[in-house]
Amino acid sequence: MKSREVILWLDERWYQALTQQLEVEKLEDKLNEYLDNLISLLPTPVYDKIIAEMREEERQMEQAIAASQKYAAFRITENCVTEQFQMKQAAGMVEAAAFVRRWLRQAERCPFQEILPGRENIPVEEFDRMAFACVTGDQKITGVYDVDLDTKEFSAVRPELGWITYRLKDVSTASWHSYRGGSYDRERRQFRLMEKLADREIPSAGHLSSENIVLSDGLVADNGQLNFYMETAFGVDKVFGTRICPGESDDSLNIYANYDCAAGQVCDELEVDLHWADGREEAVEYRLNAVEKATLLRKMEEYCLQQTGQTLKDYSGQLLAEDMAPPTAPSM
Hints:
Helix content: 40-55%
Number of helices: 10
């Protein structure tokens, strides 16, 4: 919005005489009132046009500010209490790791959230929305983190990858290396941080990553759903809370991720079947969060294209059409 400065020159004697009658602030107010009165005398079409232009400029300015605003979100669990927070500023992995290191190195530890500048509480639904936006590449969301101080785990949402989890102490050590020397720019610090965290990922419940999700054994259509078998070559006990002792017994776990063809989305729960060596069977409940579903959907898309040469949407649409087709009449 353009503005013009209007300078009024006044003889010092007039100014002194007026200030004896009025306070300086009141003098300025009266001059502003006089200017407002002059503006109100403008022809109505001219006045309305300028007011409309000013309001539109204010709207555009507000939109520009909102578009440039960056956010980050943290979920903090401590002493079995979980809270979600939003920060109205950028916080990438470098900054989040620095928060972890600062908290761990306190002589007397304050609640972790007190380290987060400009934080405000948000509901679970908003945290999930921001996590989904982050994994799908929304540039306004610079980072979404799940810091579990009870299990000493740090999880972060990575675009295209989903959740990645590390031990708190590994994040703290990597942060120290990223700042060592004090002369690295931010990109260099980011590179060094991730270099030190390479191969330090750990399995974690609620944080299935792209690395955990390997689909195999083809596609199975069943009652309006596509069933995808997931391989179990990751820390299934840590993720699902089981104790199958891989390699030490005949216990086994079958995991299926299902896609609802009619709804066009990943089903809310994994189908996890535990088979004990003594013949017993048990179903393990595992509800997927927004980031895990987005990561699974991407994997399903890739696998469906590989197996059928069709997109997930086209293949599931074909199956639905076949299910709805009337039975063929027997030939005479």
